[in-house]
Amino acid sequence: MDTEVIVAGAGPTGLVTALELARRGIGVRLLDAAPAPFAGSRGKGLQPRSLELLDVVGGVTDRLVALGRTHLPVRRYGPDGVVDEPARGKAPTPDTPWPSTLLVPQWRVEQVLRERLAEFGVAPEQGVGVEDLLVTADGVEVVTTAGTIGARHLVGADGGGSTVRRRLGVPFLGETREEIRMVVADVELEGLDREHWHQWGSPSGAPYSWVALCPLPATSTWQLQAGPLDDREPDESVLAEIVGARGPRVRLREVAWRSVWRLNVRMVADYRVGPVFLAGDAAHVHSPAGAQGMNTGIGDAMNLGWKLAAVLRGADAGLLDTYTAERLPIAAGVLGISAELSGGAMWARTAAQVRTTSQLDLSYRDGPLGGASEGPGPRPGDRAPDAPVGDSTLFLRRREADWTVLSTQDVEVAGAATVVVGDEAAATYALAPGEVVVIRPDGYVGCRATVSEARTWLAPLTARPGTARAA
Ligand SMILES: Cc1cc2nc3c(=O)[nH]c(=O)nc-3n(C[C@H](O)[C@H](O)[C@H](O)COP(=O)(O)OP(=O)(O)OC[C@H]3O[C@@H](n4cnc5c(N)ncnc54)[C@H](O)[C@@H]3O)c2cc1C
User: Fold this and answer.
1) Where is each FAD-binding domain found (predicted)?
2) I need a labelling partner for 21 at 20 to 30 A (CA). Which of 35, 121, 187, 235 fits?
3) From the CA of 185, how far away is ligand 1's center (Å)?
4) CA of 9 to the centre of ligand 1 (A)
5) Which fold does the domain 177-263 belong to in CATH?
């Protein structure tokens, strides 16, 4: 074996997967077919749950928050004039420190993840594409443009056109709607204020009747989205025309990146074939309405990363089967909500839809590690909320270990760090006398039990002593 895990694709999904493995001391190579990192903005909304998930990766969320912004108000231009809509954002609470979607271009998310990954000595190998693969008795032989590499596992995080998925022969079920297209571009312009997300018209009208211009924080650029397209190639002259029509003083200066987006709504029926896993856009694609794609890929990576690391260090191999079982229903739900929000409905989201797209309510309660259990407080499979712990917080304490046991008394559970909680955290978790709550490495409740039951529950899921290291 040349390495323990090969990750194909250094987009957000591949970077987080590699980070989750590298920080646990797993040998990983991150290959990307493109000669250089992707420069366009694409996804520009990091959802509250992603900010929580990335927090344990170490400093990443703080850095992204410093480079992004929340509460950007929308200015809508319609037949009845200009309407300023109040910013949709919430104030932090003790259990939800990042309650609002963070506006930050995807290339920036990737840059911050690459910087963190470099701290573990891993850099994406740009210009090395996966061409084929062969599953062997003890792993997988991966044929790349730079030769064949052997590994115990391969993670296909190589985007919607995934070579890994195709070589596995896994069908990508769903539809492509060639007629539903829009142009997406990063542009420099003058004549608009950067304190609003400016939006005109509706995506279901005449050609270019819908235009949105969003200032990208910590840059001088804007993300332009416009549609429906007409027969023309949306080149710089078309973009200059679209932007120039926004007002007498509005003028396009430069196009840094542009692309035509087509509606694809597809997903796989299984995320795993033997030692090979699919994650992110390689496993599911849908409308960008609702800002779910990058976030769902990050969720996949956080779910898979710790499981793969634990099994490579001696945990029960059956843990890997829980990846598809937990993540496939999430993708199916994301395809549903993004379809619901397409075609303009995005701009009139209900409070319930905003909550759904925040991903804070995603739960693995019905999955194999959850188990039906009724009662107060977060149940097994639910998101583990933050809470004050002494002069710190639970989220800060969780950065120190993979598994965390919450208890009102000092207890010992092998493979986990104990956090002794006071009244406020005990109330958030509705801790009963004698009960402990075990929190998984990816921030979901593992089990609620007595200490001895928790020890028995956790033993097969953790690495063998002396083989794992959480950074
Ligand atoms: C206009 C637009 C707006 C969007 N808005 C949002 C948003 O607000 N929020 C959100 O969450 N999502 C959004 N998305 C979706 C988001 O961009 C994608 O879901 C996200 O990029 C998926 O990440 P990924 O890492 O799975 O795949 P990708 O980002 O596609 O990365 C795949 C990587 O694999 C590499 N690769 C390809 N083939 C190979 C190969 N054979 N071998 C090795 N490497 C290979 C590619 O070079 C690439 O770097 C938006 C998308 C668009 C187009």
Assistant:
1) 2-335
2) 35
3) 15
4) 9
5) Alpha-Beta Plaits (3.30.70)
- The residues spanned by each domain of the chain are 3-174+265-357, 177-263, 364-471
Task: Name the residue with the closest Cα to ligand 1, atom 6.
Answer: 43
CA of residue 10 to ligand 1 center, whole Å:
9
Q: How confident is the model over 349-408, as pLDDT tens digits?
A: 678 878 888 899 999 998 999 766 789 999 999 999 999 999 999 999 999 889 999 999
Pocket test for ligand 1, best of 54, 261, 294, 341 (most atoms within 8 A of CB): 294
Residue 196 reports pLDDT greater than 70: yes
Residue 235 CA, chain-centre distance (Å), reads 31
Does the pLDDT of residue 44 top 70, yes or no?
A: yes
As assigned by CATH, the class of the 364-471 domain is: alpha beta
Cβ neighbours, 10 Å, residue 61: 22
Query: What CATH number has the domain spanning 3-174+265-357?
Result: 3.50.50.60
Question: Which pair of tokens denotes residue 243?
Answer: 């932007």
Mean pLDDT of 465-470: 48
Q: Ligand 1 within 6 A of 186 CB?
A: no
Measured in Å, residue 378 CA sits from the centre of ligand 1 at 32
Pocket test for ligand 1, best of 16, 106, 264 (most atoms within 8 A of CB): 106
